[in-house]
């Protein structure tokens, strides 16, 4: 416990970091879990400050939180699909303080992303550039994927997780519908391998001889496990089966590293930004985080339903 509190404490200065949108990732995944697990009220001020800092990146003319670039940039407001993950901090802040300003910003961001980021088949672009003067879309592109019209695997994972979470926090059916649409796109995609670990992009050249992305699988598995709680029986079975297959595969020697190897990360074979030759076939911190979260969620579900996990499948 002391070690966990110490490590969390090293991040405290990030509550003032308005340089990018990732403050939600950094602070809610650390201080949020600290509060959840230890009931340590000292985490609350840090989280509220973090939420206020995140709001400084909210561009009212666009209705979104700016992902990249300076807060004062009047040329374009860049919004990435990853930014859906930061909204959980804002939803929490309204519940904690009673101030609806956080909730309203989160809803606006989720709705604007829903309206503009997605294609008819449920896949999403990575980056949208909005005109901060009038809120109109300037361009749609997929920066970390293969091409602008391709479906970057982790981008689909962020959207799936983000809208599942948004439904949990709001009860708004449009978010559940979007999460299910993304799930259907992923699960039914002809380029999703049989073992359910996606290639770094669903339209990557060279399939099947290209890199898989363990981080995308881990995020998807965690999201699908939660989404199953909100689905009807037929979809529930499909979501859980896919999540289980992902976690089982990630837990084999092909993806799970041996002790004291791989920089002490749990998972191998993540892909950060293939096209820029950055973080290709490497361990990634968020891969480990959502892998553990997915396993905890599946474990809790098994325990709740008195099910047993077949450890033989991990061999």
Describe the protein:
The chain is 48% helix and 8% strand. With 315 residues, the protein is mostly helical. It has a domain at 152-315: Glycosyltransferase (Alpha/alpha barrel). Helix 2 (23-38) packs across helix 4 (87-97), helix 3 packs across helix 4 and helix 8 (214-227) packs antiparallel against helix 9. The strands form three sheets. It has a three-stranded antiparallel sheet with strand order 3-4-5, with no helix packed on it.
User: Alpha-carbon distance between the termini?
Assistant: 32 Å
- DSSP strand tally: 7
Helix vs. strand class = mainly alpha
- The average pLDDT is 95
Q: What would you call the shape?
A: globular
What is Rg? 19 Å
Stated plainly, the CATH topology of the domain at 152-315 is called: Glycosyltransferase
Lateral strand order in the biggest sheet: 3-4-5
What is the topology?
Blueprint lengths: L1 H8 L13 H16 L4 H13 L2 E2 L4 E2 L11 E4 L6 H11 L3 H16 L10 E4 L6 E5 L11 H18 L2 H16 L25 H14 L5 H18 L19 E4 L4 E5 L2 H21 L10
Antiparallel strand pairs: 1-2, 3-4, 4-5, 6-7
Helix pairs in contact: 2-3, 2-4, 3-4, 4-5, 6-7, 6-8, 8-9, 8-10, 9-10
Task: Give short descriptive properties of this protein.
315 residues, mainly alpha, Glycosyltransferase, two-stranded antiparallel sheet, 7 strands
Summary, kept brief:
Helix content is 48%, strand content 8%. With 315 residues, the protein is mostly helical. The strands form three sheets. Strands 3-4-5 form a three-stranded antiparallel β-sheet, with no helix packed on it.
